[in-house]
């Protein structure tokens, strides 16, 4: 799933049939208490998948910043559950994600070095403007201006994960109750990232619930404490339709 962050076209192609099925199954649904759809995303890969799926179902892809409560959204959710996400990009998180199952240090250490190089390259690639912008320069003054614009854009352009995180607190998703399930010991997605995102969601007027686990690995909260985990999911589902 991590590779999908750098191959969005392939992910869109893979999700197109799922969007068609979801569209047919939710025909007549409206986001909110009357909907029969619970959205449950796991990790940053699940967030990216949900973003792409949501975009495939949008009649318009405009993402102007507007009051979140006034949005019209394509996936008619009753509630949204976010397990171990969203998190921001970090080299340590990428290394943890790709080396989690590697035990042999003779393999793991070189792999960490390769991942560091690849991460740096992809981060720069993601921030770059098209090369054609520079090839079109007509003279030294024009080239200097374009170079200055290029450098400013590199400094300001957020990472892919940062853009996905921002998307989840934009009018693109239904302004329905949401539940964050996360852990203080998650090595891939720090709890600070999740709590920061939840706080921003609250500031936008969303109904936010959070379940903070103290000693569970990434996306393993349900396995370690199923009663607490599924109880929280059941609670947000019932609250989202209560008295409606």
Task: Summarize the structure in words.
The protein is about 50% helix and about 10% strand. The protein contains 10 helices and 4 strands. The longest helix is centred in the middle third of the chain and has 23 residues, at about 105-125. It has about 240 residues and is an alpha/beta fold. The model is unreliable at about 60-70 and about 130-140 (pLDDT under 50). Helix 8 (about 190-205) links the parallel strand 3 (about 180-185) and strand 4 (about 210-215). The protein starts with 7 loop residues before the first helix and ends with a helix. Helix 1 crosses helix 2 (about 45-55), helix 2 (about 45-55) packs across helix 7 (about 160-165) and helix 3 (about 90-100) crosses helix 4 (about 105-125). The chain is globular and about 55 Å long. The protein has 3 domains: about 1-90 and about 160-240, Rossmann fold (3-Layer(aba) Sandwich); about 90-120, no CATH class; about 130-160. Strands 1-2-3-4 form a 4-stranded parallel β-sheet, with helices on both faces.
What's the SSE blueprint?
Layout: H1 8-25, E1 38-42, H2 43-56, E2 79-83, H3 91-99, H4 105-127, H5 132-135, H6 140-156, H7 160-167, E3 178-183, H8 191-203, E4 208-213, H9 221-224, H10 226-241
Query: Mean of residue pLDDT?
Result: 78
Strand content: 5-15%
Which runs of at least 5 residues are low in confidence (pLDDT < 50)? Answer: 60-72, 129-138
Give the assembly state of these chains: single chain
Structural class: alpha/beta
The CATH first-level class of the largest domain comes to Alpha Beta
